[in-house]
Amino acid sequence: MMHNIFIQLAEKQLAGLCSFKNSNNSLSVPIEKNNGTEKPTLLMLHGWQDNAASFDVLFADLIKHYHVVALDWPGHGLSEHRHSDNYYHFVDYIDDLHQVVELLSVQNLYLVGHSLGAIIAGCYAAAFPEKVQGIVLIEGLTPLYETTDNAVLRLKQGITSRQRYRQRNATRPKRKMASFEEALNLRSVVNKLSKSDLYPLVERGTETDGEYWYWRHDERLRCDSLYRMAEEHAQALISQIQCPALSIVGHSGFQQLQRKIPERTWFQQLKQVKVTGGHHCHIDSPNDVYRHILTFTQGF
Q1: Which of 38, 39, 272, 297 is the 20 to 30 A CA-CA neighbour of 106?
Q2: In sequence order, what are the residues at sequence separation of 6 or more whose Cβ sits closer than 8 angstroms to the Cβ of residue 252?
Q3: Where does the AB hydrolase-1 domain lie (predicted)?
């Protein structure tokens, strides 16, 4: 069983789901042995505009073998939004993650990330190798990068997208839906997943005023980035990941993740497996994803 938890960081409060209960919403992991050895901890990191319940179909199996913590990133799920004068540059999530890892204070920690969460997991493992035993990257591999020739256009487009957001936010009311079912239908169409599979994610990602339903996520998440790494920067980061990495991709997911070069050659230790499904293959094929995670973590 997973429990709601709220984690106070330096500047904001994060929400999440946790397989163990603690007083005062702390992240003190209980000492518990599994077959004579201490249970590892899985810290699960969802993708863009998802939330901790993205991993709901995996929880029942995972908690048999691991302590499990799944976060809602800032601006997602039940977590607080960033302050009104701030936006969502992906490197700031790495700072959020580090604060959570420090609160967990465990030795046997694995990061399991999907999409955006996978990219954050890899960058964190590069910067803090002593904190991470292994990383599982579901439909995500390296930071997004582009040629330096695009730097000026990227900056201009990012600033313009923020201005559009400000104008839209000032003149147009928040999008409303007539029912929870409408929200569920919308996500089902976008993600090409069944409504039953998406129910926990949509439930955690919406709120109601009693008449209408609204998305909880911060609309600023849709603003374009002001900056994107060059290939050399991305490679420099990924090449410093010292722990083993498992890449899980969906057969009909992002095909660029399955390329043999150049990104896969940047890792010191990388194994890639394919499962049935698309970009949310952990929801499409939870049994296979669970089995691959278990085999990976038991291998060392």
Answers
A1: 272
A2: 277, 278
A3: 40-175
Catalytic residue among 19, 54, 115, 285: 115
Tell me the per-residue pLDDT of 39-66, one tens digit each, with 9 for 90 and over.
999 999 999 999 999 999 999 999 999 9
Three-state SS string over 198-210 comes to: HHHHHHHCEEECC
- Structural domains of the chain sorted by starting position, each given as residue range(s) with its CATH number in brackets: 3-150+230-298 (3.40.50.1820)
Q: In terms of DSSP H, where are the helices of 105-213?
A: 116-127, 151-171, 180-191, 195-204
- Please tell me the pTM assigned to this model: 0.95
* List of long-range contacts for 165-169, beta carbons under 8 Å, 24+ apart: 165/219, 165/220, 165/222, 165/223, 168/219, 169/219
Q: Residues 16, 52: contact at Cβ < 8 Å?
A: yes
Looking at this protein, which amino acid is placed at residue 6? F
For 76, how many CA atoms within 13 A lie in the half-sphere containing its CB? 24
Please confirm, yes or no, whether 105 is among the known catalytic residues: no
